[in-house]
Design goal:
Oligomer: single chain
Distance between the termini: 40 Å
Helix content: under 10%
Shape: globular
Strand content: over 45%
Largest sheet: 6 strands, antiparallel
Number of helices: 0
Order of helices and strands: EEEEEEEEEEEE
């Protein structure tokens, strides 16, 4: 198993930047594809970005392409989400997730393949 802890959230003004971190403990993070999801009040959880086990393949939601960057440092068992040019509609709880039983280059973009989830970190974006 793996335990995931997100950090780096907090209040930010529209147009600002934040970097979220997801620290994995237990089994090494390179065993898992990793994803960032978000859930706004009253809405379903949606994928923001995902990265393969190797880190060589990434995928982004259309709404964040060109503004967000997902990366991973397997030596540190940490995954990052750099968020630039934040918008008020990006206000949500952001979750880190790990998918174990996927192909080495897979980047799952739905919730179902993910086996482990963090507790989430709040990102309010003020207008």
């Amino acid at each position: 198993q793996v335990q995931l802890v997100e950090s780096g959230g907090g209040l930010v003004q529209a147009g600002g930047s934040l970097r979220l971190s997801c620290a994995a403990s237990g089994r090494t993070s390179s065993t898992y594809a990793m994803g960032w999801f978000r859930q706004a009040p009253g809405k379903e959880r949606e994928v923001v970005a995902a990265i393969s086990r190797s880190g060589g393949t990434t995928s982004y939601a259309d709404s964040v392409k060109g503004r967000f960057t997902i990366s991973r440092d397997n030596a540190k068992n940490t995954v990052y989400l750099q968020m630039n040019s934040l918008k008020p509609e990006g206000t949500a709880v952001y979750y880190c997730a790990a998918a174990e039983w996927v192909h080495y280059i897979a980047v799952p973009t739905t919730t179902r393949p993910y086996d482990y989830w963090g507790q989430g970190t709040q990102v309010p974006v003020s207008s």
